[in-house]
Amino acid sequence: MRERKLTLDQLAHTGTIGRMEIERIKPDSVWANLETCKLTTVTAPSGYGKTTILKEWAAKTNLEVGWISLGEEDIQRVSFWKKVIVHMPGLPEQERINLLDILQSTSFSPTHFIATLCTCLRTYQVSGALIIDDFHMMMDSPELGELITWIEEMPDTYHIIISGQSFTGVSLKRLLRHQQVLQITKQDLILTVEELQQYVATYLHREPSEEVIANIMQQTKGWPAGLRLVHMYEQLREDYADLQFSNVTVARQLIQEIVYSLSESEQHYLLCSAVLNTMHIRLCDHLAGTRRGRVIIRRLKTQGLLVEGQEESGWFSLNRHLRNYLREMLDMQAEIDVKELYKRASDWYETQQTLVMAIHYASKAGDQERLKRLIIKAAPALLEEGRVAQLQEWISMLPRKYMYQLELGIIYGWVVCFRFQPELAERQAHMLEEQLLRRELQLTEEEEKRYFTDVYTLKTFISILQDDAKSTLDHANKSLVYSPITSSYFSHSFDYNRHDATIMHSTIGGGGDLRSVHRLYERLAPKITKESVFSGYYHICLAEIAYEWGQSGKAKRHLDVALMIADLFGLPGLLVPVYLLKARLEIEQQGNAQAAKATLHALKDMLTTSNAPSDWFKKAEAARVHIAIQQNDTDRIRNWLSLFVLQEPPIQQKSLFEYVTLVHAYAALNERETALSYIKKLMPFVKFGGRISAEIDLFVTQAVLLYNDDTDAALASLKQALRLSADSKYMRTYWLGGETVRNMVEELIQLEEVPKKQIKYVEQILAYWSEDTHDQRLQSKLTKRELQLVYQLQLGKRNIEIAQELALSLGTVKVYFHRIYEKLGVKNRKQAKEIAAGLDYSEIL
């Protein structure tokens, strides 16, 4: 919280006017009542010293004070509340981090956030004050209502002070009714006669006669900024008696005095720098074509017109009034080309590899060719970071014709794909593919290969979002034909050669050889070194595989990472499978139906806020039916079925998840014939689409439905499922079939109809129904050496002591425990000790 501490350190000064120090807050003043109210509003036009007097109060109060100054960038909800949380005094750091996580979550709810914040303040009995300066920037913002609600609900030990020029649109009726508001206006801020007398005697070194005081009061009307101007004229040895000015123009007059005191070259330097939001000496020198920046920057700093950046040294920003004045002057300077200045700024940032700022200034310059080139250069990194909205905004500044050019067209395809519009992205990709296939573009062989790779990579990703496993496989193979290594827009998922499995595991309903995908992803593991959109798909795929193999601990670890990345980027294409798998784990592993329902409810809230297509909502609702099937809630199943049949969608790849759910729903209601008829319709479709997991699921479900009436057909169906699943080791699909599947598998073994190469796999399936106790199953997973380590763990020994006892190195002990945690499905020593408490250690003693 370095920024907050720096701000509070700056408050340890009394109010100043020019070089003067005037003590404004008296014991009997209105400021003495500030600590008795939840909310204090300080309302006055510019120049009445709101900020100055608040600094004086902050330095005198015994409360811990936080301070934030609002700018245009803080009007957005996340930016505003983030600034509030970061600068709130008294909050424990862990709670501050938790609140920031809630705020940045895609399932953010203002009501939940405010309730959590108020609970935190009450729990820790936090007391303090938060000053929000320049609050008029928030007018007409939807966050105003949230802020007022928070102030109404927060404990009386906390105080909010808001300062600004006006507070129109703010409703304080409830707070006023409970006498919890202190309203300070400009009448409370004007200088009194006594303060003017003190000023004249101390700083002007004159006799504070009634005539002098009357003259100054007539000119300033008690306005502190006016008094500052008087002081400045006194320093310039002007006769303050002849001074004429108005409240509106005082800041401008102050700025003029400073600007016109500079030489022409220095004025030119400032004017060139005025196009910048943040300044650096080398950047300003580049714009002005000079090296005199250090002298000018030093002078501006001494006059208090530069604000030094707190995050990075060497960077400054101009005082807001000075910057506005300089930009107005710049608009009137015909000899200075403002667009050329923007181009120079863009060029400088590009040389510094700060492409986002380079694009920003290229757009300001209206240089479309430069803007296009920079977007193409920055796009792979920006897409990986999930900054899709920013890319879309920049692309919208370019003429429509650029969307049909290959490089920018591919980027636009990725943007609309990530904006949850796979159909539009598919049309864009098809148009680009047609251009390349016509061979009308004058491209080198290398360029053509690169563009084909990028286009087919885009089409692969679109197919993943559309849940089309066959098309995913086809497009992935085509991309590998043109480049056996990688595409610049999807580097983590295609960095393998053509001899490896070329099947991308689809994340919902899925298709593919699980073992091949797992081997492929193990080779990719060293490349997944940072959080990105693509690493999210990597982790959800591994979580799905671990879940199917019954490795719940491993599945949960990968799922947690995928959930964090999904929340970070807010992509429904990733969030939907993550939430669905999370709900399945909660209902099947933990038996917690309420948690699973809450997860799916959060998913629907997220889909609503992101304006996702209706297909995602249908998947979420179908997942709720799986919970109803687990709970045997026939009413909910029938309600869903009636709605589904009423608006039955065509059978296609994106509706497959709902249709498989439909089969399970009819099976749960014992409507055997209807379920079998849908299986018959779906089977050719899943085979053609390469949906291996869905095909196995349908064969197993069909076998269960046929077993009582047609045993031979049931066993034939199960043999088909085993044939498809043996190489990939599908497990959970069989376990969900229950005792009927176990009986059929045992019957197949008795009839010797299980091929020898499948025997071990079938035994693994049957082990799930073993009569051994939970502890016996755990013990069977551990080797004798691992059991020895677990026993030492039960004795409460540390790793170094275990290493000495068993004559092992410390590193070997750590490796052993890593394996033990994975086998037991736990994360740490405490959990391992608890779960292994009932094991039999007699054989190692």
Automatic annotation (TrEMBL):
Gene Ontology biological process terms from the UniProt entry: regulation of DNA-templated transcription
Domain HTH luxR-type: 775-840
PROSITE patterns (alphabetical): HTH_LUXR_1, HTH_LUXR_2
Protein name per its UniProtKB record: LuxR family transcriptional regulator, maltose regulon positive regulatory protein
Species of the source: Terribacillus aidingensis
CDD domains the record matches: LuxR_C_like
GO molecular function, one term: DNA binding
Keywords: DNA-binding, Transcription, Transcription regulation
